[in-house]
Amino acid sequence: MISFIINWSDQRFKTRKPEARREGYGLVSGFIGLGTNVLLAVMKLMIGLFSGSVSIMADALNSVTDTFASILTLMGFKIAAKDPDEGHPYGHQRFEYISGLFISILLLFVGIQFLQTSVKKIITPHSVKISLLVLIVLAISILMKLWQNLFYERIGHHINSQTLIATAKDSFMDVLTTAAILVSALIYQIWQLNIDGWVGLAVAIYISISGFLMLREFTNQLLGNRPSFKAVDRMTKALEQYHALLGFHDLLIHSYGPNAIFATVDVEIDSRWTLDQAHEMINDIEQDFKKQLAVTLVCHLDPIDLDNRHYNEIHSAIKRIIKAYDMNLHTHDFHVEQEESGEVVQFDIVVPQKIDVSDHDLNQQITRDLKEEFPDIATDINFDHNYIGEDKSTFDDDSAAS
């Protein structure tokens, strides 16, 4: 059934643009989720009211929350598919994360409410009515939620939607909680042992924790997560294919939604190239990134003078100095400016995150050590802390000319 839905969607949406195709999958998922969650909510509310079980009522309200979540999912995919406009030049795809944020807040609210109800039920327990119908409905609910989990997970990975993948995890947790409620009902049916309040408390805690974790995840996405290793590795390997480049560094990736990825990178070229040669090269790179990776890339040129022996001697000294600090420091963007006062050496130092020494202290130490070998030069050092991926600078390679 799931494969049929995916194949049908593939055929129906294959001619659409990526944003519209994603919207189509999202709407299919949202409508199917809405229908199944409404059915589950009605079934659980009916048996919850009949049995008087607080744990079943908690699970029923969880299904009601899932129903609202499906509506928000529909809204999220619909708005996220809107074209960029004057007020939103990068598009609206982050609204998918906003809808997920509202879902997590709603889930957290329901969980906290049922924490209170379950504690009251533990303090003053009431008898529950468990019948064969109650057990059958709970078993059907487990099967439906398991199907939902598989469905959301398949679609989520198919279109790379964190919202649907998170919803799949929520559905699987619902399988576990409903199974716990079913076990609780069986225990009461067989041994007349009423643990309904305690199971309700466990369900409420699960709902609250799930809501909090989802809230944190979608908040991080809105703030701007660090790109995945897979995405960084894919871009790095793509840049390595351009053998005319001497090197590259300072890769930055900005996400405005799953299909709205922007990136910048510094690329090193031979300083003897003409401006037309350099422009043709970076234009090819940017066009290839757009076509092959769906990434809008902007390249910054760093011309490298490979034949200046004096410059290479200075840079070799810098590499030797920072290597002696044993801090895993790297250098790039090396230039020597000729000014009236003399030579000014400009370069960047890539600083790992877990370094206790301040940039100011590093600056003073490097400048002092460099002046011991080249007394007449001044330094202009920039410290990089937030760039992504490996530093592939030519002059960071120990095999560079010296």
TrEMBL record:
Q: What are the residue boundaries of the Cation efflux protein cytoplasmic domain, all occurrences included?
A: 231-303, 313-376
Bilayer disposition of the protein: Multi-pass membrane protein
| InterPro entries recorded | Cation_efflux, Cation_efflux_CTD, Cation_efflux_CTD_sf, Cation_efflux_TM, Cation_efflux_TMD_sf, CDF_Transporter
Q: Which UniProt keywords apply?
A: Membrane, Transmembrane, Transmembrane helix, Transport
Q: Where in the cell is it found?
A: Membrane
TM helices/strands, residue ranges: 24-50, 97-115, 130-151, 172-191, 197-215
Task: Give every Cation efflux protein transmembrane domain span.
Answer: 31-223
Respond yes or no to whether keyword Transmembrane helix is given for this record.
yes
Q: Which family does it belong to?
A: Belongs to the cation diffusion facilitator (CDF) transporter (TC 2.A.4) family.
Query: Which NCBIfam families does the UniProt entry name for this protein?
Result: CDF
Q: What is this protein called?
A: Cation diffusion facilitator family transporter
